[in-house]
Amino acid sequence: MNEEKSHFETRAIHAGEMHMADPGSHVVPIYQTSTFVFENTEQGARRFAGEEPGYIYTRLGNPTVRVLEQKMADLENAEDAVAFGSGMGAISAAFLQLLSAGDHVVSIKTIYGCTYALLTGMMRRMGIDVTFVDGTDIEAIRSAIRPETKVLYGETPANPNMAVLDLEAFAQLGRESGIPTIIDNTFMSPATQRPLDWGIDVVVHSATKYLGGHGDLIAGILVGSSDFVAEVKEDVLKDVGAVLGPFDAWLLIRGLKTLPLRIARHNENAMAVAEFLRDHPAVAEVHYPGLPSHPQYRLSQKQNHGGFGGMISFELSGGIEAGRKLLDSVDLCTLAVSLGACDTLIQHPASMTHSTMDEDQLRASGIGPGLIRLSVGLEHRDDIISDLKSSLDAL
Ligand SMILES: Cc1ncc(COP(=O)(O)O)c(C=O)c1O
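Above: inputs. Below: predicted complex with pyridoxal-5'-phosphate.
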């Protein structure tokens, strides 16, 4: 789809879509099939040899999944995309493609708990070393680079302390050092942040979150250059097999059509909730990149558009005990992990999403015992605020 002709909202609806000529299905069909029939043995052999385009087997490609991939590539301003059965499927595929025994990764220190567990567990077991550094300090990232460093990894805003990484500086460091940069864009989605526009090489998503948007599926996406995506499909997806099913791909295609509308509301609601929390006496600190008090507020203004995302984390003056009371007393807000759904979700990272880290690791990653994470939903903002207010007032 020609980007110069169409706005993001239009591309979210039209990019990658196909209409079936016969019988003229308007919406992309769900090709709920494991395999595809060949006309004869010669055609089968040609498809396997890559001499004829066409589908073979859904682990290697599926028309519904392909529409999703093309739409996501378009929205992230990437050459191509590949879908996975989960966000961790996409993240692990990027590492598996780029790393071998003896290699080294520099990662920012505050990242999603399972990504941290993957880097410190399985990757180390496979002979890959990792150094964690403060993602807000580009010089610390530079200093951690070694001759064997093969990946620079970041998440922004970071899960869950909302620290913001300078995408342009990170990409430039990667270019200068000849090291690929990977960014997890789950927290923002391409409606608010497009890391490839700043020079980042690879973007990964938990599509489970804002991309799907309705909390009803698990999926992942990786976007990047055509060559890299082709390598990941051929070398990792085909043989490791964290494939996305056609029905979940179809739900994602449907979700993406309303992404710009949903994100606009998530962003507006989160801003209002962050301002409310900042002014409430029971709240000690609010981490939201849209508040001028956030240390990287100016940077967020530069690299985000249309708002500052729907994720907030905050600490209560009463610490962990007050946090427990809050989580157990909210009514409209749902006590659940995950994010980016229609409803507001509230959780406690230290005992939930980041429980893969021990106390020292949590402290080093800036995740306090009293930190609470909120995924602000699409309800009326007054109702979200009133629910939080009655629980906070009671502390
Ligand atoms: C920032 C981030 N990245 C990756 C993931 C993993 O995604 P999935 O659960 O789809 O595997 C999550 C899940 O919460 C996440 O929050």
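The first strand starts at residue 80 and ends at 84.
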